[in-house]
Amino acid sequence: MITKPLPRHHDLAALIFYLFKQGQEPGEAEQHEADHDHKECLHVDPHLVAAWDPSLLDGQLLDGTPARPDEAGQRALVDLMDSPRLLFGVNLKAGHVYHVPIAAHPDDGVLGDQRWAELAEQAVAAIGVQNCRWVAVWHGPNAAGADHIHLAVQLVGEDGKTARLSYDERKLRTWANQVEERLDLVRTARAGSGARGLTRAEHERAKATGVEPERRQLARLVRAAAAGASNEMDFLAALKAKDVDVRPRVEQGLVVGYSVARPPAGTGGKTPSTDSTPALRLAGGQLARDLTLPRLREHWPPPENRVAEAALLAHWERPGELPEPRRAVRWNTVQIELNKAKAAAAALDPDDQERWNTAVTETAELVCVLAVRLERDQPGPLHRAADALLDAARLGRPQDHRAAWKDSFHRQVVLPMLAKAARIAAYSADPAPVLALAVLAIVAVLVYDLATRQRHDQQPGQSGPALHRAAGELAEHRPAPANPAAAGPLAADPATVDDSAARDAAAKVHVSATGAPKTTRRSLIEPMGRRPGTHSSGDQPQAGSRTKAR
Predict the structure, then answer these.
(1) Nearest C-alpha neighbor of 226 from the set 211, 203, 244
(2) Is the full-model pTM beyond 0.70?
(3) Which burial class, exposed, middle or buried, applies to 516 when counting CB atoms under 10 A from its CB (0-12, 13-18, 19+)?
(4) Any bridge partners for residue 99, and if so which?
(5) In CATH, what is the architecture of 2-183?
(6) List of the chain residues with pLDDT < 50
(7) Which residues fall in a compositionally biased region of kind Low complexity (predicted)?
């Protein structure tokens, strides 16, 4: 849920007329749009879904059809809402009209009048204006596709007292978090979850252009660089290799923070000094709470002394180069470490929230590295799986998740094999397609096992559905179970039932090696089913078979 209290004002009539205006045309209500910063949309069927007096919905007090007052009915509604203020002669300098658009995420679809009525009443109670006269008007999907209502409140109550709006934004955000969790809606900006919610402008720009928001791109690149680095210098070199411009924040000669931007192509990895549309620059904390520099440094050993700490500044100002990529055969080592991690994860207790959530976080970081390496700038299933795993890690994080290791410089590590695999994958040459598929198959099984062992209600904040979403994104890479009936909850999902012919024909593996074209899953798997030295066209692998890569 996206809530945005707008500036108070005095013109209740203008607001009510706007909210009920049918067929809003481009250019109309320009002042309203400019002042209140929400996108213009056609009001196909604006109507009342809730009010301080339920009889308003029956059309008994207003002229016109129920919940859809005509112009005379709208004037009567303004008079009804404003009558307590006029009765007591109250004139509020800051304005007596309070306006809050409330929108669902576009992926949540249309919620319906009954649900919106419930939510409007809850929002009024959360803000603390239930003693005032208010209405909630449905507008439907806006330009970004978000179903939404508008809450209009006259702030002078029935007793002549003015409602207090202290901390209204915080109260609305807390209420929205609770609604998202209770109704399993898309999390837009969960308090304390780590992820920074996208702004409305970012959502709309992404929807219009089809390009992933820069904030998410930068967050993934920074996370992948941190997960694949052995120290702070490697982290900086990895970002430089991805053309990410990093600037340190220095206090008393020490680096205490950073900001990143991804300059346009052709600028040599540096943001242009003069540009009509400068690159978006964000601090680490604006990407996610766990991407601040102090939190990132928990990945790496600390400097040996103050001299070494001060020397880090030179690396920040002039990042070094990554070492030459090691041989692609090292991806065999990645497979070995992933198999060890899969076995270790199978021994974890899902009820141990601290260790379980750490394992999910480590898995998410590995998948971020693989997404950046294998899909690069073409977001696909790996990118979506990484985002879902990060959601699961944040939503399932215990409130005191750092209490057990807060006195230690390093964060807790549960599956060190994943960190090792991430570092090797980050610095190895591009893998052969067969090796890439073998690695993805192990990762898909690991994520599937985590999802099926965690019930939806086992962790706070509904992390289970996010884990299942990640498993679904990787389903095409998961080997077919020998007994589909015993494959667990996800096997019932038609998208994950083994159907090799259809799945192999449709699935894609995005291995972007030196500009090579994207290759279908079948063309990559076929060589795995043949014995070395055989080239017969009739020598085809069994459907769903997997042969271990040497």
Answers:
(1) 244
(2) no
(3) exposed
(4) 152
(5) 2-Layer Sandwich (3.30)
(6) 25-40, 190-194, 266, 273-276, 401-409, 457-461, 491-550
(7) 483-495
